């Protein structure tokens, strides 16, 4: 499934979910991202040894959480990062599996456990809080 068609408000070049492979609206979502080695960020992070920046992995996971919470026209913005760890590195051309699962909600704030893996190796995990935007 295309993330933009599922309500992701971001557009190129700031879409960090290539496809959604499972969606339980309001509860959870799984998706994938593969970064091209030609992406300009790898010229500086790091020349000769490119790594996906942790902040980009965090944004990809926040986008995955927004997709999980979305549906029925709902839209979310990242409000807080409760914790985020990067126990291993992700590199260009690797398939990064993204997961987000809602763990709670209070008012317009939705909490998600998120993780990113390359194969069985965790490259990022933590909790994010999204704020539901009411137009």
TrEMBL record:
Q: Is Glycosyltransferase found in the keyword set?
A: no
The chain's coiled-coil residues are none
Gene Ontology molecular functions? lyase activity
Keywords attached to this entry: Lyase
Looking up InterPro entries in the UniProt record yields:
FabA_FabZ, HotDog_dom_sf
The residues the entry assigns to the signal sequence are: none
Tagged with keyword Lyase: yes
User: Which protein is depicted?
Assistant: 3-hydroxyacyl-[acyl-carrier-protein] dehydratase
